[in-house]
Specification:
Elements lengths: L1 H18 L4 E3 L2 E3 L3 E10 L4 E10 L2 E10 L6 H13 L6 E7 L4 H5 L25 H14 L4 E6 L5 E3 L2 E6 L4 H13 L4 E6 L12 H7 L4 E5 L8 H17 L15 E10 L4 E4 L7 E2 L4 E6 L5 E6 L4 E7 L3 E2 L4 E10 L2
Parallel strand pairs: 5-6, 5-7, 7-11, 9-10, 10-12
Antiparallel strand pairs: 1-2, 3-4, 4-6, 8-17, 9-11, 12-19, 13-15, 13-18, 14-17, 15-16, 17-19
Amino acid sequence: MIKNRTFLFTFLLTSTFVIAQKSFVFQNKSIKPGTKKHFEIPVVNDTDSTFIPVTVFHGSKQGSILGITAGVHGYEYPPILAAQQLNQKIDPTKLSGTIILVQIANVPAFLGRSPFLNPMDNKNLNRSFPGDSNGSITQRMADVLTKKVIERSDFFVDMHAGDAPEDLHSYNAWYQSEALPEVSRKGREMALAMGFDYSIIFNIAKERLQAPSLYCSQEAFHRKIPSVDIECGRLGIPNKIETDRIVNGMFSLFVHLNMMDFNNESVSRKSIVIAKRFTIKSTSTGLFYTEKKAGDFIKKGELLGYITDFFGNKLENVKASQSGMILYMIGTPPINEGETIMNVGVTPISN
């Protein structure tokens, strides 16, 4: 009897040791298990200053570290509003692992209502990774995000939408490279677990992994961290449907990563995987006219619209070079030579 009690005590002690959760240190502050804490990370150079608002949720149980960024482009509102909802809905007492949630990565662009660019230096944060601690304010923002969030993550999600001029059909995407098969596999599983109607494969050549990533989520992939992009929302409109869609997809991911038990926010839906895309670019500058919208299916050779000069003279017809579905497109009249008019998904494959 005594021997059995000793065995039981040893088993319980060992089990408790295994599942015990330690505090998580972020910005030199300790976050206790089952709690969350807000941070404002300063970013400063000789001429400009800003901050990055981050919330860290530290679960009551051990698990993975998931990094999430919203607002890398400050005019893409559904992901930013989704992050605000996640801040309220994630219960750290029911969480396994840790979530580092960047509420708005690009505060100057958000407050300045600036599409694509940070108005402080007119640079695109999503073309600035891994960043530079001695560079411009945007390059320093990328450096902070890389070191404070991406480097610490086991998994990573960057949340986007169609910016001010972009009509977009919601999808998510994962990075894939033959050089990183296991990381690619985990990214695929993450993307498909989120239940978006469409999932895109971002193929990365082996040699591309040796160059600067430029993109936020690609920086994670370069560091062998499974990563997913979300694109959900259009024309900078803060739509509740897209916002809720992002939130539900993220809760499904939490369940997939064993960070949270199943709940009403998680979804189960089979995605259509698109392996290839093509772009249609403008050869003129002027006004773009079309009746097409994101999500429409187009056929090879189909007339999609036309471009005129500033006096109404037609400069070119825009035709489809292949068949497929419009993932995103210019949804406003201004068009410049060389700009992407449409990005079209082709070759659906079985998942």
